[in-house]
Specification:
The chain is mainly α and about 200 residues long. The chain has ten helices and two strands, in the order ββαααααααααα. The protein has a two-stranded antiparallel ribbon with strand order 1-2. Strand 1 and strand 2 form a beta hairpin. Helix 1 crosses helix 4. The termini are far apart.
Length: about 200
């Protein structure tokens, strides 16, 4: 466990807290409330720090969110890297779908996907956050398109399959998992969605 870093507030004596722990707490707030729904009071109370300490350690709210999103992608979306390393396109899709269900329905954590929640719940005042989330998602989409193009070249997918269309279909299922989990769908219901999606997957 990292040794707590000493963060100096703008005024008053230095406050000592673990930056990693504070960031984890901030992630929980953003994940459950979205970027705009998370107030500075919500964040500082969850993190156990003052506003000056937040600014000193993380910059502003937007910068804090980006760091929280980095943490989310490293820890909660680690399944994406595992999926991309699978030997077949179907296993890529299955690993992505089951990983999304695991993340969206984890016990003791907010339901849904932070990326999806933040991309659909941002108004004009948070346009830069919306753009950031979309840009990151687009990079992942492009990687999937290239993976499915490779699968076509290897004969793992039918030649008539449109790689971009297949990618968008998979992403639609992934987003659906997040939205339904956020609306209260059970783990069994999400698993049924995955099983149904896999029955529709094209075979070579």
């Amino acid at each position: 466990m990292n040794k707590p870093e000493v963060i100096s507030a703008a005024r008053g004596r230095p406050r000592e807290f673990c930056v990693d722990h504070a960031l984890t707490q901030a992630l929980g707030v953003f994940w459950s409330k979205g970027y705009e729904g998370a107030s500075l009071t919500d964040l500082t109370e969850a993190m156990g720090i003052t506003r000056p300490s937040l600014y000193a350690a993380f910059g502003n709210k937007e910068s804090l969110f980006r760091k929280a999103l980095d943490l989310y992608e490293r820890e909660k979306m680690a399944y994406v890297g595992k999926a991309m390393a699978q030997p077949t396109a179907r296993k890529v899709a299955e690993t992505m779908l089951r990983g999304a269900v695991d993340t969206a329905s984890g016990a003791g954590e907010p339901h849904g996907c932070l990326r999806v929640i933040s991309s659909v719940a941002c108004g004009p005042a948070a346009q830069s956050i919306h753009d950031e989330v979309v840009e990151r998602s687009n990079k992942g989409k492009q990687a999937l398109i290239e993976r499915f193009e490779q699968a076509k070249a290897e004969g793992d997918l039918p030649p008539q399959i449109n790689a971009e269309g297949l990618t968008r279909t998979l992403i639609a299922f992934l987003q659906g998992i997040s939205i339904q989990a956020n609306q209260g769908a059970t783990r069994d219901e999400l698993d049924q969605l995955v099983e149904t999606a896999l029955t529709l997957w094209p075979s070579a």
